[in-house]
Specification:
Chain A: GO terms for molecular function: metal ion binding. Chain A: The chain crosses the membrane at residues 12-29, 63-83, 104-122, 142-169, 181-201. Chain A: Heme binds at residues 31, 73, 116, 155. The complex is a heterodimer of chains A (205) and B (255). Chain A is mainly alpha-helical and 205 residues long. Chain A has helices spanning 8-21, 23-36, 42-53, 58-83, 94-119, 129-136, 139-166, 173-201. Chain A has a single domain (8-201), classed as Up-down Bundle (3 helical TM bundles of succinate and fumarate reductases). Helix content of chain A is 77%, strand content 0%. In chain A, helix 1 (8-21) crosses helix 4. The radius of gyration of chain A is 19 Å and the shape is globular. In chain B, the strands form two sheets. Chain B has a five-stranded mixed β-sheet. Chain B has a two-stranded antiparallel sheet with strand order 6-7. In chain B, strand 6 and strand 7 form a beta hairpin. Classes of the chains: A mainly alpha (205), B alpha+beta (255). At the A-B interface, helix 1, helix 4, helix 5 and helix 7 of A face helix 7, helix 8 and helix 9 of B.
């Protein structure tokens, strides 16, 4: 009588939230911290890049710990954004606005990352301070980067809040309220680090 | 005498979103009814029923709606009033901005005017086995007792009357998504907490991990804002997320 339930959707959704935090979120923090070395000058940044380049099996690590989970999170995220409804116009409570913003920033980040990768990682240029400096010297690219940093750090920080609920970590209302504040602090700090580094790159080496 | 005259001249202006049948297109119709002290939206609809004449003086079919208890314990009169899903019986005219805009909860199929078909909620409750099986071929004897500390919060969850306000407000209940809705998750928590209900705990968790299950919740948390009984729906969802997480990992490691 009882049909066997398919858990495929459940597993795909849980993998999506997990991928967003564990490989992708951690990589975001690592990436922002590497960029922050630019505030100490071109030499410090180039040295940080060299340290990353010295990681053994770098292409393997990059593919399995960044590219694969990022692609999954991005593609499945588009599906999530598509099957979500949007009613924050009718119900403008804070959490519902954040629900809408999470999906909007996700899509902005999706577009941002594709262009960002095309102009850096897959541009054929060596990842040096000078390469970044050349890019951000263009005001349009600079502001595009600002939007991308703010959107991606918001998406990550607010995603941490809902990750904690999806995995049953924060159950009570008080716990959820506190993590909501913590997530906004994480957003401001990470966005600050990112924007600060970006401004540093505008100075010639 | 003078107060009687003023109340007699006061009017209530309503804009009702109507629909003649399940497949007809909706239209708005305006009504003006006499104000009575302490009246609710149901009283306005009853006044329209007694004298079904719209604002422009045309005689029309009376507006249909569902109601039962008139004291916010049955859930039947849930409709969208001034943009928010709520019970029409506790929607007091004195507290509402006029004109009062009344429309059916369109997340459900509309039967006629303000009457909607909430069968999907019953289907969702069946899916998560929101009951305690006690029937058998012989007397099973008394069940285990429930600790008082659990009974207190479980009682809050038991106040759900399946009105559908949470389903109406949830952004993830839509035509692209098969989400069963917040109430069903909370009911699964209620029956999992009951010592006898807990004997079927795994079946409810399996159902919650199935199609349209708990994973479809996007934490917009509108449900907890609109619930007329103040049920901590978001806490229930998070608590069931925890049960499901343990169950999923545990089940996988046991195989």
């Amino acid at each position: 009588m009882a049909k066997a339930q398919s858990h495929a959707e459940f597993i795909l959704r849980r993998l999506h939230t997990l991928a967003g935090v564990v490989p992708v979120g951690l990589f975001l923090i690592e990436h922002l911290l590497t960029n922050a070395t630019a505030t100490d000058g071109a030499a410090a940044f180039n040295q940080a890049v060299a340290a990353i380049q010295s990681i053994p099996l770098l292409h393997f690590v990059e593919f399995f710990f960044i590219f694969l989970p990022l692609t999954y999170h991005a593609i499945f995220g588009l599906y999530v954004a598509f099957v979500s409804g949007y009613n924050s116009g009718q119900y403008s409570w804070r959490r519902n606005l954040m629900f809408t913003l999470q999906r909007i920033t996700g899509i902005i980040t999706f577009v941002f990352i594709i262009y960002h990768l095309a102009t850096t990682r897959f541009s054929g240029n060596a990842p040096t301070y000078n390469m970044v400096h050349q890019l951000v010297s263009n005001p349009a690219y600079f502001w595009f980067m600002i939007v991308g940093i703010v959107a991606s750090t918001f998406h990550f920080a607010n995603g941490l809040w809902s990750f904690c609920i999806h995995w049953g970590i924060t159950v009570g209302q008080r716990a959820q309220r506190i993590t909501a504040w913590v997530s906004m602090v994480v957003f401001v700090v990470l966005a600050g680090i990112g924007v600060d580094a970006l401004i540093a790159f505008t100075h010639p080496a | 005498m003078s107060t009687a005259t003023t109340t007699a001249t006061r009017k209530v202006h309503l804009i009702v979103e109507r629909q003649d049948g399940p497949n007809s297109s909706p239209y708005k119709e305006e009504f003006v009814v006499d104000y009575k002290p302490g009246m609710n939206v149901i009283a306005c609809l009853m006044a329209i029923q007694r004298n079904p004449v719209n604002k422009s003086g045309k005689r029309v079919a009376p507006v249909t709606w569902e109601m039962n208890c008139l004291e916010e314990i049955c859930g039947a009169c849930m409709m969208v009033i001034n943009g928010k899903p709520r019970q029409a019986c506790t929607a007091l005219v004195d507290t509402l901005e006029q004109p009062i805009r009344v429309s059916p909860a369109r997340t459900f199929p509309v039967v006629r005017d303000l009457v909607v078909d909430r069968s999907r909620m019953f289907e969702a409750l069946k899916k998560v086995k929101a009951w305690i099986p006690i029937d058998g071929t012989y007397d099973l004897g008394p069940g285990p007792r429930m600790p008082e500390v659990d009974r207190q919060w479980a009682y809050e969850l038991s106040r759900c009357f399946t009105c559908g306000a949470c389903v109406e407000a949830c952004p993830n209940v839509n035509d692209r998504n098969s989400f069963i809705g917040p109430f069903a998750i909370s009911q699964a928590r209620l029956f999992n907490a009951h010592p006898t209900g807990a004997m079927h705990r795994e079946e409810r968790l399996e159902a919650l991990m199935g199609e349209g299950g708990i994973q479809e919740c996007g934490n917009a948390q509108n449900c907890v804002q609109v619930c007329p009984k103040g049920i901590p729906l978001t806490t229930s969802i998070a608590a069931m997320n925890r049960q499901v997480t343990y169950h999923a990992i545990g089940a996988w490691l046991h195989k």
